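Design job #97: recover the sequence.
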């Protein structure tokens, strides 16, 4: 049973996390308008601050495993909470995400997401959303970076089963790029909703890359098996049980 102190520390952590987002957004605002590199510098600074303050205030340490992609690749990642975004952005040189269109109106986060090359998509109608996503990604192909997509389309709590969407496979086929699957256990410590954050070791693990050229159905089966198997292993290592 979480103690009152654990709740208080979690609340303090959340407040300072968003306060620091506002402070750094203002500090890097003008440099980011001048240079996309400075926008990435602001993002990296903020994400490393969140990782450091999480370890200090709530005992949530974090670790990256596997070779961090440095070139133009697609990253198909397990998405359990905001913290896995933080971990990815803290180490990827030029991350850009396929994200929900409504997030562009989020203060600070939306403006920086657009500046670093994230691709907003409307998930309202599946067929139209996939076509628009492919079109937007193709338009943004001139902006180098690691394209992060969440194959399940949203945050998924540990133990919850949700199908993998074909959009990831269509992008893999269209862009003809290597795909790096990524697994995580962050949902064990940092839930999708709520205040409480738990101590422990949150891990983001980059898995063996998948070369371009596979048939889309085979590719989708492969990455789902890799990501789900590795994520379950990481969650079990963290003490999670179904």
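Job complete. Output follows.
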């Amino acid at each position: 049973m979480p103690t009152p102190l654990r709740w208080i520390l979690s609340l303090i952590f959340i407040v300072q996390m968003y306060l620091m987002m506002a402070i750094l957004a203002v500090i890097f605002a003008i440099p980011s308008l001048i240079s996309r590199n400075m926008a990435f510098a602001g993002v990296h600074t903020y994400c490393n601050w969140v990782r450091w303050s999480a370890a200090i205030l709530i005992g949530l340490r974090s670790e990256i495993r596997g070779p961090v992609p440095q070139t133009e690749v697609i990253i198909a990642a397990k998405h359990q909470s905001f913290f896995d975004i933080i971990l990815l952005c803290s180490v990827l040189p030029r991350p850009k995400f396929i994200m929900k269109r409504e997030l562009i109106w989020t203060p600070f986060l939306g403006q920086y997401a657009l500046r670093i090359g994230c691709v907003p998509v409307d998930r309202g109608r599946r067929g139209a959303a996939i076509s628009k996503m492919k079109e937007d990604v193709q338009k943004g192909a001139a902006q180098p970076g690691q394209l992060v997509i969440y194959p399940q389309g949203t945050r998924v709590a540990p133990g919850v089963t949700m199908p993998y969407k074909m959009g990831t496979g269509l992008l893999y086929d269209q862009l003809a790029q290597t795909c790096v699957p990524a697994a995580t256990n962050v949902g064990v410590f940092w839930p999708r909703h709520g205040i409480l954050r738990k101590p422990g070791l949150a891990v983001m693990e980059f898995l063996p890359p998948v070369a371009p050229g596979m048939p889309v159905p085979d590719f989708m089966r492969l990455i789902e098996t890799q990501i789900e198997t590795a994520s379950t292993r990481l969650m079990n290592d963290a003490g999670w049980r179904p």
